[in-house]
Amino acid sequence: MFINKYDLFGGISSRVMKEITDICVEEVYDKGTTIFNQGERAENLYILREGTLNLMVKNGGSLVFSLSEQGEVFGWSSLFESGRYTASGICDTDLKVFKIERKELYKILKHNAGDGFIIMRRLAGVIANRLNRAYQDILSTTY
User: Fold this and answer.
1) Is the pTM higher than 0.70?
2) Do 49 and 94 meet the contact criterion of CB atoms below 8 Å apart?
3) Residue of 20, 2, 3, 9 lying closest to 121 (CA atoms)
4) Helix, strand, or coil here: 29?
5) What is the rounded distance in angstroms from the CA atom of residue 17 to the CA atom of residue 20?
6) Reduced to 3 states, what is the DSSP secondary structure of residue 45?
7) Between the CA atoms of 11, 105, 30 and 83, what dihedral angle is there, to the nearest 10 degrees?
8) Which one of 23, 30, 93, 139 is CB 3.0 to 4.6 Å from 104, fit for a cystine?
């Protein structure tokens, strides 16, 4: 596995990168599969390898984010206190991902705070970009 080429893991030590690689699982999902539902306990972080995933947020209306770029991260709610997915993840096409179990990643990050900080900082960038996209989508539909 070559997850170290993804932005989320850029700049962390090779030792920690190996530990994370060792807990990654490659998974394949069929088109139409729901990987997780909004509100469910968030147990896994995912990295997109191939295909398109729709993240659907429902609250009265609905908002859909499509992810199709290799290396995009989803399921990041698994790394936060709330521990609940904020959207449903539905495969728009057949999908290949790397799955990282929350508990195992926490163990690694707990013992490697510096590398953990780098990952969380990069994850904050992912969240900020997704929020910015949401703002743009909302503004483009209201004006």
Assistant:
1) yes
2) no
3) 9
4) strand
5) 5
6) strand
7) -110
8) 23
Largest CA distance in the chain: 50
Q: For the chain, give every domain's residue range.
A: 3-136
Under CATH, which architecture does the 3-136 domain have? Sandwich (2.60)
As a whole number of angstroms, the distance between CA 93 and CA 75 comes to: 18
Token digits for 71? 């290396």
> Which string of DSSP letters, residue by residue, matches 67-79?
E-STT-EE-GGGG
Per-residue pLDDT of the chain (143 residues), as tens digits, is: 566 677 788 888 989 999 999 999 999 999 999 999 999 999 999 999 999 999 998 887 777 889 999 989 999 888 887 789 989 999 999 999 999 999 999 999 899 999 988 888 888 887 787 777 767 766 777 65
Which among 102, 101, 95 has a CA at the least distance from the CA of 66? 95
Q: How far apart are CA 67 and CA 133, in angstroms?
A: 12
